[in-house]
């Protein structure tokens, strides 16, 4: 990773161990930002910071922080006041517990940071904490202060570094009450089997293969307009039939997923209970042939019967053909005899 400026310097504290660290952003945004403009002349629209008492624009150096009291009184707060907060986590990431990873609700996950060792003295305790994380397969719950407020965090190992994930406080996560369907619905085993099959067919994916297609499309539009060309047109959305039956929708989804992966779409999803039918048993999932031989003998008998029937048909046809020829010959001979008599 290229050199990134630290946004906070402090220490990790657990027990009597203190590790000097530097906080570095672990993520970055690649989104395309726009400017507000005056559409008539393309002039930039800017927000100016104006003092409402003097009615003039002020510079950044003249701007500070203040807390507005209930009666409207402004109480100034300086950076020095914030630097000397009576709070143990003002400059310390204080580890309060080590817990299994599954104890952390993903809903609480917030911004992520890397913790870089703060100089040579931090190398030994930093490595010790990292290896302890690896061997215990646990994460640490910690408290720290950043950007004007105390936060909850989780420490874990990423590669050879220690990462800090900001966590929302438990009371900041809303309960999902009233969001689930209030209608009583029954899901049968066949529907679950098809849902499982769809999940298996879609399978896993390497997240490295995913990318922001919206940003790429937006870059194409910007490039086209910059070159004085018409922006590319959006492709026609794929037409899909309206499916009202859940089973049919699942089956079509499995088929589409298989086709997109180049698999045989007609292969069965999974082994289902055999239905009573006059047709032969279909192939099992995965295209494997059935090892059952119970129906081989009837098939042979049917073939033999068909062969006998064919032979019988051939004999009947041949005998009919021969009889027809004999009858025609007799008629011809009779006509010739009649002709001779008339001539005499």
Automatic annotation (TrEMBL):
Biased composition (Basic and acidic residues): 255-269
Biased composition range(s): Low complexity: 304-326
Domain Ku, chain residue ranges per copy: 55-184
Key words, A-Z: DNA damage, DNA recombination, DNA repair, DNA-binding
Keyword Magnesium: no
SMART domains: Ku78
Family from the record: Belongs to the prokaryotic Ku family.
Protein name: Non-homologous end joining protein Ku
Organism of this sequence: Streptomyces plumbiresistens
UniProt gene name: ku
